[in-house]
Protein backbone atom coordinates (compact mmCIF):
# COMPACT_ATOMS: atom_id res chain seq x y z
CA UNK A 1 0.00 0.00 0.00
CA UNK A 2 2.78 2.44 0.86
CA UNK A 3 4.28 2.03 -2.62
CA UNK A 4 0.97 3.02 -4.18
CA UNK A 5 0.61 6.00 -1.88
CA UNK A 6 4.18 7.07 -2.70
CA UNK A 7 3.06 7.26 -6.32
CA UNK A 8 0.24 9.61 -5.35
CA UNK A 9 -2.58 7.06 -5.54
CA UNK A 10 -5.61 7.12 -3.30
CA UNK A 11 -5.80 3.51 -2.11
CA UNK A 12 -8.99 1.59 -1.33
CA UNK A 13 -8.64 -1.80 0.40
CA UNK A 14 -12.17 -3.19 0.86
CA UNK A 15 -12.58 -5.78 3.59
CA UNK A 16 -14.43 -9.09 3.39
CA UNK A 17 -16.72 -7.91 6.19
CA UNK A 18 -18.05 -5.11 4.00
CA UNK A 19 -17.89 -6.73 0.57
CA UNK A 20 -18.05 -10.49 0.11
CA UNK A 21 -16.53 -10.68 -3.36
CA UNK A 22 -18.05 -14.12 -3.93
CA UNK A 23 -21.38 -12.31 -4.35
CA UNK A 24 -21.91 -10.41 -7.59
CA UNK A 25 -24.14 -7.91 -5.79
CA UNK A 26 -21.35 -7.08 -3.34
CA UNK A 27 -18.94 -6.42 -6.19
CA UNK A 28 -21.47 -4.15 -7.87
CA UNK A 29 -21.92 -2.29 -4.57
CA UNK A 30 -18.14 -1.95 -4.21
CA UNK A 31 -17.77 -0.23 -7.59
CA UNK A 32 -20.84 1.90 -6.95
CA UNK A 33 -19.54 3.06 -3.57
CA UNK A 34 -15.82 3.51 -4.31
CA UNK A 35 -15.69 4.19 -8.08
CA UNK A 36 -12.07 3.06 -8.56
CA UNK A 37 -10.12 3.95 -11.67
CA UNK A 38 -7.76 0.94 -11.51
CA UNK A 39 -8.25 -2.43 -9.82
CA UNK A 40 -5.39 -4.66 -8.65
CA UNK A 41 -7.06 -7.97 -7.86
CA UNK A 42 -5.10 -9.58 -5.01
CA UNK A 43 -7.98 -11.16 -3.10
CA UNK A 44 -7.55 -14.92 -2.78
CA UNK A 45 -8.31 -17.93 -0.62
CA UNK A 46 -4.88 -19.53 -0.36
CA UNK A 47 -2.81 -21.95 1.68
CA UNK A 48 -0.03 -24.49 1.61
CA UNK A 49 -0.15 -28.07 0.33
CA UNK A 50 -2.10 -29.31 3.34
CA UNK A 51 -4.79 -26.64 3.04
CA UNK A 52 -5.10 -27.24 -0.70
CA UNK A 53 -5.60 -30.97 -0.11
CA UNK A 54 -8.21 -30.42 2.59
CA UNK A 55 -10.23 -27.67 0.88
CA UNK A 56 -9.97 -28.09 -2.92
CA UNK A 57 -13.63 -27.25 -3.50
CA UNK A 58 -13.49 -24.09 -1.42
CA UNK A 59 -10.26 -22.97 -3.05
CA UNK A 60 -11.72 -23.49 -6.53
CA UNK A 61 -15.10 -21.89 -5.84
CA UNK A 62 -13.93 -18.92 -3.79
CA UNK A 63 -11.09 -17.92 -6.09
CA UNK A 64 -13.08 -18.37 -9.28
CA UNK A 65 -16.19 -16.54 -8.11
CA UNK A 66 -14.26 -13.63 -6.58
CA UNK A 67 -12.30 -13.09 -9.77
CA UNK A 68 -15.21 -13.55 -12.16
CA UNK A 69 -17.46 -11.20 -10.21
CA UNK A 70 -14.82 -8.52 -9.79
CA UNK A 71 -13.68 -8.52 -13.40
CA UNK A 72 -17.23 -8.54 -14.77
CA UNK A 73 -18.44 -5.72 -12.55
CA UNK A 74 -15.25 -3.72 -13.16
CA UNK A 75 -15.90 -3.81 -16.90
CA UNK A 76 -19.52 -2.80 -16.38
CA UNK A 77 -18.44 0.07 -14.11
CA UNK A 78 -16.00 1.48 -16.67
CA UNK A 79 -12.81 0.74 -14.72
CA UNK A 80 -9.83 1.89 -16.80
CA UNK A 81 -7.53 -1.03 -16.02
CA UNK A 82 -7.86 -4.38 -14.26
CA UNK A 83 -4.75 -6.19 -12.99
CA UNK A 84 -5.26 -9.85 -12.11
CA UNK A 85 -2.52 -11.25 -9.91
CA UNK A 86 -2.52 -14.95 -10.72
CA UNK A 87 -0.33 -17.75 -9.40
CA UNK A 88 2.63 -19.91 -10.33
CA UNK A 89 0.34 -22.83 -9.38
CA UNK A 90 -1.36 -22.36 -12.76
CA UNK A 91 1.66 -23.81 -14.57
CA UNK A 92 1.68 -27.50 -15.60
CA UNK A 93 3.23 -29.95 -13.13
CA UNK A 94 6.16 -30.79 -15.41
CA UNK A 95 6.81 -27.41 -17.02
CA UNK A 96 10.37 -27.18 -18.41
CA UNK A 97 12.58 -25.02 -16.18
CA UNK A 98 12.69 -22.06 -16.33
CA UNK A 99 8.91 -21.64 -16.79
CA UNK A 100 8.10 -19.47 -19.81
CA UNK A 101 4.73 -17.77 -20.20
CA UNK A 102 4.20 -19.70 -23.46
CA UNK A 103 4.27 -22.98 -21.47
CA UNK A 104 1.20 -22.14 -19.39
CA UNK A 105 -1.19 -24.38 -21.34
CA UNK A 106 1.18 -27.30 -21.97
CA UNK A 107 -0.28 -29.64 -19.34
CA UNK A 108 -2.27 -30.05 -16.13
CA UNK A 109 -1.14 -28.35 -12.89
CA UNK A 110 0.32 -30.28 -9.95
CA UNK A 111 -2.56 -32.24 -8.42
CA UNK A 112 -2.42 -30.89 -4.86
CA UNK A 113 -2.99 -27.29 -6.00
CA UNK A 114 -4.74 -27.81 -9.36
CA UNK A 115 -8.20 -26.55 -8.29
CA UNK A 116 -6.67 -23.30 -7.05
CA UNK A 117 -4.36 -22.93 -10.03
CA UNK A 118 -7.06 -23.62 -12.59
CA UNK A 119 -9.50 -21.21 -10.94
CA UNK A 120 -6.89 -18.47 -11.15
CA UNK A 121 -5.89 -19.39 -14.71
CA UNK A 122 -9.51 -19.11 -15.84
CA UNK A 123 -9.29 -15.39 -15.05
CA UNK A 124 -6.58 -15.02 -17.70
CA UNK A 125 -9.03 -16.39 -20.28
CA UNK A 126 -11.79 -14.15 -18.99
CA UNK A 127 -9.61 -11.05 -19.14
CA UNK A 128 -8.55 -11.85 -22.71
CA UNK A 129 -12.18 -12.49 -23.71
CA UNK A 130 -13.34 -9.20 -22.20
CA UNK A 131 -10.50 -7.39 -23.95
CA UNK A 132 -11.56 -8.92 -27.27
CA UNK A 133 -15.29 -8.23 -26.89
CA UNK A 134 -15.37 -5.02 -24.85
CA UNK A 135 -11.91 -3.50 -25.32
CA UNK A 136 -11.37 -3.90 -21.57
CA UNK A 137 -7.77 -3.38 -20.48
CA UNK A 138 -7.26 -6.48 -18.32
CA UNK A 139 -3.73 -7.77 -17.72
CA UNK A 140 -2.55 -10.92 -15.98
CA UNK A 141 0.55 -11.39 -13.82
CA UNK A 142 2.13 -14.68 -12.71
CA UNK A 143 4.12 -14.16 -9.49
CA UNK A 144 6.14 -16.99 -8.05
CA UNK A 145 5.94 -18.00 -4.36
CA UNK A 146 5.95 -14.86 -2.20
CA UNK A 147 7.33 -14.37 1.31
CA UNK A 148 8.17 -11.58 3.74
CA UNK A 149 6.98 -9.66 6.80
CA UNK A 150 3.24 -9.90 7.30
CA UNK A 151 3.03 -13.40 5.83
CA UNK A 152 0.55 -15.99 7.06
CA UNK A 153 2.16 -18.01 9.85
CA UNK A 154 -0.93 -20.07 10.75
CA UNK A 155 0.31 -23.70 10.89
CA UNK A 156 -2.96 -24.91 9.34
CA UNK A 157 -2.66 -22.86 6.15
CA UNK A 158 0.81 -21.30 5.83
CA UNK A 159 3.22 -21.81 2.95
CA UNK A 160 6.66 -23.33 3.29
CA UNK A 161 8.77 -20.33 4.42
CA UNK A 162 6.48 -19.07 7.22
CA UNK A 163 5.78 -22.68 8.23
CA UNK A 164 9.50 -23.45 8.59
CA UNK A 165 10.24 -20.18 10.38
CA UNK A 166 7.46 -20.81 12.88
CA UNK A 167 8.56 -24.41 13.51
CA UNK A 168 12.17 -23.37 14.13
CA UNK A 169 11.42 -20.37 16.34
CA UNK A 170 8.84 -22.20 18.46
CA UNK A 171 11.03 -25.31 18.75
CA UNK A 172 13.96 -23.13 19.81
CA UNK A 173 11.86 -21.45 22.50
CA UNK A 174 10.64 -24.82 23.80
CA UNK A 175 14.07 -26.50 23.54
CA UNK A 176 12.63 -29.22 21.31
CA UNK A 177 15.12 -31.75 19.95
CA UNK A 178 13.65 -31.98 16.45
CA UNK A 179 11.09 -30.60 14.05
CA UNK A 180 9.18 -32.50 11.38
CA UNK A 181 9.15 -31.16 7.83
CA UNK A 182 6.80 -32.30 5.07
CA UNK A 183 8.15 -34.21 2.06
CA UNK A 184 11.67 -35.24 1.10
CA UNK A 185 13.30 -31.84 0.67
CA UNK A 186 14.09 -32.68 -2.96
CA UNK A 187 11.53 -30.36 -4.59
CA UNK A 188 12.63 -26.86 -5.54
CA UNK A 189 10.95 -23.49 -5.35
CA UNK A 190 11.59 -19.91 -6.37
CA UNK A 191 10.74 -17.13 -3.94
CA UNK A 192 10.05 -13.43 -4.38
CA UNK A 193 10.26 -10.96 -1.49
CA UNK A 194 7.01 -9.12 -0.89
CA UNK A 195 8.44 -5.63 -1.47
CA UNK A 196 9.92 -6.71 -4.80
CA UNK A 197 6.60 -8.29 -5.77
CA UNK A 198 4.73 -5.10 -4.94
CA UNK A 199 7.10 -3.04 -7.09
CA UNK A 200 6.73 -5.47 -9.99
CA UNK A 201 2.94 -5.39 -9.78
CA UNK A 202 2.90 -1.59 -9.70
CA UNK A 203 5.31 -1.31 -12.63
CA UNK A 204 3.04 -3.61 -14.63
CA UNK A 205 0.02 -1.55 -13.61
CA UNK A 206 1.76 1.57 -14.89
CA UNK A 207 3.25 0.38 -18.18
CA UNK A 208 2.04 -3.10 -19.21
CA UNK A 209 -1.05 -3.37 -21.42
CA UNK A 210 -0.45 -6.66 -23.22
CA UNK A 211 -3.10 -9.44 -23.16
CA UNK A 212 -0.41 -12.11 -22.63
CA UNK A 213 0.49 -13.21 -19.07
CA UNK A 214 3.69 -11.94 -17.49
CA UNK A 215 5.96 -13.75 -15.01
CA UNK A 216 7.20 -11.99 -11.87
CA UNK A 217 9.98 -13.71 -9.96
CA UNK A 218 13.55 -13.70 -8.80
CA UNK A 219 14.68 -16.24 -11.40
CA UNK A 220 16.52 -18.20 -8.67
CA UNK A 221 15.68 -21.74 -7.62
CA UNK A 222 16.39 -23.44 -4.28
CA UNK A 223 15.76 -26.97 -3.04
CA UNK A 224 13.41 -27.19 -0.06
CA UNK A 225 16.10 -29.10 1.82
CA UNK A 226 18.55 -26.24 1.32
CA UNK A 227 15.86 -23.71 2.24
CA UNK A 228 15.20 -25.53 5.51
CA UNK A 229 18.93 -25.55 6.30
CA UNK A 230 19.10 -21.78 5.70
CA UNK A 231 16.17 -21.10 8.01
CA UNK A 232 17.62 -23.37 10.70
CA UNK A 233 20.89 -21.43 10.52
CA UNK A 234 19.25 -17.99 10.47
CA UNK A 235 16.95 -18.74 13.42
CA UNK A 236 19.74 -20.37 15.42
CA UNK A 237 17.74 -23.55 16.01
CA UNK A 238 20.06 -26.30 17.28
CA UNK A 239 17.82 -29.35 16.85
CA UNK A 240 17.39 -31.86 14.05
CA UNK A 241 15.16 -31.85 10.96
CA UNK A 242 13.15 -35.00 10.35
CA UNK A 243 11.64 -35.30 6.86
CA UNK A 244 8.21 -36.92 6.61
CA UNK A 245 8.42 -38.53 3.16
CA UNK A 246 4.84 -39.73 3.55
CA UNK A 247 3.70 -36.16 2.95
CA UNK A 248 3.72 -34.76 -0.61
CA UNK A 249 6.48 -32.58 -2.05
CA UNK A 250 4.09 -30.82 -4.42
CA UNK A 251 5.35 -29.68 -7.82
CA UNK A 252 8.86 -31.11 -8.44
CA UNK A 253 10.45 -27.81 -9.53
CA UNK A 254 9.52 -24.14 -9.83
CA UNK A 255 11.61 -21.43 -11.40
CA UNK A 256 10.38 -18.68 -13.71
CA UNK A 257 11.86 -17.14 -16.81
CA UNK A 258 11.64 -13.45 -15.90
CA UNK A 259 13.21 -12.04 -19.07
CA UNK A 260 9.94 -10.59 -20.37
CA UNK A 261 9.35 -8.67 -17.15
CA UNK A 262 12.86 -7.24 -17.42
CA UNK A 263 12.19 -6.12 -21.00
CA UNK A 264 8.60 -4.93 -20.59
CA UNK A 265 8.82 -3.36 -17.14
CA UNK A 266 12.48 -2.59 -16.62
CA UNK A 267 12.05 -4.52 -13.37
CA UNK A 268 14.08 -7.15 -11.55
CA UNK A 269 13.93 -8.45 -7.99
CA UNK A 270 16.37 -6.56 -5.74
CA UNK A 271 16.28 -8.24 -2.31
CA UNK A 272 18.93 -10.92 -1.64
CA UNK A 273 17.23 -14.09 -0.46
CA UNK A 274 19.15 -14.34 2.81
CA UNK A 275 18.32 -10.74 3.69
CA UNK A 276 14.64 -11.29 2.93
CA UNK A 277 14.59 -14.35 5.17
CA UNK A 278 16.29 -12.42 8.00
CA UNK A 279 13.71 -9.65 7.82
CA UNK A 280 10.86 -12.17 7.78
CA UNK A 281 12.25 -14.00 10.82
CA UNK A 282 12.73 -10.72 12.69
CA UNK A 283 9.14 -9.68 11.91
CA UNK A 284 7.76 -13.00 13.16
CA UNK A 285 9.78 -12.88 16.38
CA UNK A 286 8.75 -9.31 17.07
CA UNK A 287 5.09 -10.14 16.43
CA UNK A 288 5.28 -13.16 18.75
CA UNK A 289 6.77 -11.01 21.50
CA UNK A 290 4.02 -8.41 21.10
CA UNK A 291 1.35 -11.11 21.31
CA UNK A 292 2.86 -12.50 24.52
CA UNK A 293 3.16 -9.04 26.03
CA UNK A 294 -0.46 -8.13 25.26
What can you tell me about this protein's structure?
- 46% of the residues lie in helices and 14% in strands.
- With 294 residues, it is of the alpha/beta class.
- The chain has a single domain (2-293), classed as NAD(P)-binding Rossmann-like Domain (Rossmann fold).
- The strands form three sheets. A four-stranded parallel beta sheet has the order 1-2-3-7, with helices on both faces.
- Helix 2 (24-34) packs across helix 4 (56-77), helix 4 (56-77) packs parallel to helix 5 (114-134) and helix 6 (160-174) runs parallel beside helix 8 (224-235).
- The longest helix is centred in the N-terminal third of the chain and has 22 residues, at 56-77.
- It is globular.
- It starts with a helix and ends with a helix.
Total of DSSP H or I helical runs spanning 4+ residues? 10
Unreliable residue stretches: none
Per CATH, the architecture is 3-Layer(aba) Sandwich
Described by the principal axes of the CA atoms, the overall outline is globular
Report the count of strand segments.
Answer: 9
